[in-house]
Amino acid sequence: MTENKERSSSLVSFSYGPQHPGTHPYSLLLTVDGDRIEKVEAQIGYVHRGLAKQAESRTFIQALPIMERSCFIDSVNHQFGYVMAVEKLAGIEVPERAEYLRVIAAELSRMNSLISWFGGYAAETGINSAFMWAWKDREMFLDLFGHLAGSRVSVMYLTIGGVRWDWNDKLTNLTWEIIDYMEERLKIHKKLVMKNSIFKKRTKGVGVVSKEKALEYAFTGPNLRASGVQGDIRILEPYSVYDHFKFTPKVMTEGDNWARTMIRLHDIETSMEILKQALPEIPEGEYKTKVPLKLRANAGEAYARVELSRGVMGYYIRTVEDKSTKPYRVKIRGPSFSHFQIVEDILVGTHMADIPIIKGSLDVCPADLDR
Amino acid sequence: MNTDFLFIKVAVFPGVLFVLFGCLYLMYFERKTIARIHGRIGPQYVGYGGLLQTIADLMKLMFKEWIFPKTAKKAALFLTPIALFLLAFLPLSVVPWGENWYVADFSVTLIFAFVVIAAIPFLSLLLGWSSGSKYSLIGGYRAASQQIVFEVPLFLSALTPAILANSLSLMDITKNQKIWFLVLNPIAAFVFFVSMLAMMERQPFDIPEAESELVFGWKTELSGIFFGWSIFAGYTIMIGGSALFVVLFMGGFNGPGNNLGVLWFMLKLALIWLILFAMRAVLPRYRMDQILRMSWRLMIPLSLVSIGLSIGLLFAFPNFFRGV
C-alpha cells in the first residue's frame, strides 16, 4: 500500500503535443515515471477535415483534388486509388499508355514521399544534415512534377479515364536524371545515417513490433514488411500494370526502427527498378479516355486499393440511384490510423527519448490520420 | 601577479568585450559553417555577408516581450540565466591566452576553474524547476544528471596535465608543455573532450534540450533577453571548455615565433570549434540512459587508466618531466 503510494507520487503526467515541435497536430497524454513511460493515451482529430463527406457533395471529378489532400506528400498515389474505384463503378476502360504513365507518376511520388520521410526521421534523431540533404533531393521530384502537371506539390496528374497531360521526351530525360542522381544520393544517405553508430544504438532493438502484433493492428506497407510479412499489394494483387514489372519489395524480420528504416530506403530502390523497366516500354496511343465532365454512374459499389509509400489505402464508393453524378457514400481507409494506434502499446516501458524515434519510424501522416 | 593594463584586460581582452563578441561571432560562424555542411547559405542579409546578423538577433531579444507561465518562480527565473552567464565567465579569467594576456594567475587556477564549472548543473536544475513547466523540469533534471555524471571523468582526466606538468596553475601547465599532452596521453585528452561536450550540452550530448522530445529543455519557458542570457551562457561555457582543452592538452599559447602566443591559441581554438560545428551537423543524439552508462562504464575507468599512464610516464622518464 505504502509502496503504491510512493509509486503514484513519482508519476508525472503531461500532454506531449499538440503544440510541440516533435508532434504534428496530435497529442499524446503521457504518464511517466522518471524517464520511463507508464501510460500513453493518443488524442487525434486536430486536422479533421471530413474529406470523405466533402466528396459526397461533389461530382466524381470535382472530388479529385480533395482526394489528393489526404496527405500532400504522396499525392499521386492518393488519387490513384480513387480514380480506380470510380472507373470500376462507372465501367471506364483506361488506355494502356495512361496506365504506364500513372505507374511512373505514382512511383516518382512514392520516392518523393520516402526520401522526405527519411530526412524527417533523421532530423528527429538529431542528424540535421541528413534532413537538409534529403529535402534538397526532394526538389528534383518537385521540379519534375512542375514540368509534368504544372504544380509541384499537389500534382493533380491523374484523372478519371487516364492522365491529364501526355508524357514527352524531356520528362523521360528528367526521370533518368533522377534515377542516376538518387542512386548516388542513397549511398551518401546510407553512409551518413545508417552507418552511424549512435543511430544504430538508438534504433536497433527499439520499438519492436512482432509479426503477430503487426497483423493484429492491421499493419500494411513497409511497417508490415519490417515485421516479416510480405504485404505489398503491388505483388499480391497487382493493380494497373504492376504485373508487367519484376520487382521484389524487401521483407525483414526484426520489426524494429532499424528494420523499418532499411525497408523504406530499399523501397526507393524498388521504385527505381520499376521506373527503369517502365520508361522504355511506354506504349503509343491515347493517354486518356474521353469522359463527360458530369460523369454518371449506375447504382452499385466499388472498392479499390493501392499501395502507398506508407501502407495500403482503400477507397470504397457507393451510389444508390442510377445515373447519379455524385457518390452516395465514400469511405477512405488510410494506413496511418492503424499504424498510429500501436503507440499506446509499444511506447509503454520505453524511455521518453524513444517517443520521437518510435513514432517517427511508423511514418504516420497526421493529415491522413484524421482526414 | 602581473597587474599592467589590468583594466584593459578585464574590460577588453581577454575580458568582457572579447567574450561578448566572441559569443556573437561564434554563433555567426557556427551558423555559416553548419549551413555550408547542410548545403545552405546561412545568414547573409544583415551587414556584409550577414556579419551583423547575430547582433540584430540580440537586439531583437532585448526588445521582446517577456512571457512566463503563471506557475513560474519569477525571481529565480529572472536571476538564474544572468547568474549562469556570470558563472560561465569566471573560468575564462584564469585562462592564459598569451604569455602576458590573462586576467588572473595564481597557484591553483586549475582547481578554481573546475570549482566554478561544478556549480553549473545546480543552476540548470534551478532554472528547470523555477520555470514551472514540466518540459523545463525534465530538461533540468536531465541537464543536472548529465553534467554531474560527466564532471567526474572531466576532473579525473584534468589531473593528467597537472601530474605531467607538476603544477596546478594553468600558466605553469602551458609553459611546461613542450610536447602536447594530447600526444603524450591521448586517453586523457579523449575523455576530457567527450566529458567537455557533455558539460556543454553539445551534440551528440544535447539531450537536455532535445528538440523533438523536450521542446527546448530547461530553456523552454525563457523569453526575451533572459533567453538571450541563457544562450550567451551556453556559448561562454563553450568558449571556456574549449579554451581549457587547448590549455591542458594542446599546448596553450606555445608555438613558433615570438609574441605570437595569442594567435596560436586562437588557431587551436578555431580548430576545436570547427570539430564541434561539424559534430553538431552530422551526429544524432544519445539517449539519457546510454550516456549515463557510457560515463560509468567507459569514461570513468578510462580516466583512471589515463592517470595511471601519466604516473607511469613520470616514472619512466623522470629527467624529461623533472627537468622543466
What does this structure look like?
- The complex is a heterodimer of chains A (371) and B (324).
- Chain A is α+β, with helices and mostly antiparallel strands and 371 residues long.
- Chain A has a single domain (48-370), classed as Cytochrome-c3 Hydrogenase, chain B (Orthogonal Bundle).
- Chain A has 16 helices and eight strands.
- In chain A, strand 2 (27-33) and strand 3 (36-43) form a beta hairpin.
- The model of chain A has no long low-confidence stretch (mean pLDDT 87).
- By secondary structure, chain B is mostly helical.
- Chain B has one domain (67-322).
- Chain B is 69% helix and 0% strand.
- Chain B has helices at residues 6-11, 16-38, 53-62, 74-93, 109-118, 120-130, 134-165, 170-175, 181-184, 186-200, 211-214, 224-249, 261-282, 288-316, 318-322.
- The longest helix of chain B has 32 residues, at 134-165.
- Chain B is globular, with a radius of gyration of 20 Å.
- The mean pLDDT of chain B is 86.
- Chains A and B meet through helix 5, helix 6, helix 8 and helix 15 of A and helix 2, helix 7, helix 11, helix 13 and helix 14 of B.
